[in-house]
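Q: I'm writing up a methods section and want to include an example of the input and output format. Could you take the sequence below and give the corresponding predicted structure tokens, formatted cleanly so I can copy it straight into the document?
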Amino acid sequence: MVKLMNKNDKKNKVEIVHDAFEIGIILKGIDGIIEIVGGIVVLFTTPTIFKNLVIFLTKNELIQDPRDIFANYLLRLSASFTVKAEHFTSIFLLSHGVIKVFLVIAMLQKRLWAYPTAMMIFGLFGVYQIYQYSINHSVFLILLTALDVAVIILTYLEYKNLKTERA
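A: Here is the clean output for your methods example:
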């Protein structure tokens, strides 16, 4: 038996998409703020301070389990952290964060230009994250990319609904 969709069903779906969209972009905004803070911290942290901080944070874990994968990964990462890497990381985090926060604010203000721009930018971030995953196999990058894909889909649906609403 085929059930016809009435206006209330359609309105409920639009509201669900809108709520999911807002949650998604708020998460992207929080991610952007964290990246900005992280970029500032990295900018003012020397490689030596970073290495010492990682040693301090992983010391107890490595005493309990010298083969701890995450702690050893952080130690290897800190050992290869140079001034050049510090500057790249800082610029990368700051630019990503500022772009995300700017786009999230524009979409919360329902600026139509921001939706396709955000879909394109988040898509590019996702491609870069997949590239980075192919290098270091971080599960975190897969999760972040999955969030990006979900936000892109929700952004598209919200954009479509907003254009229909304004027409």
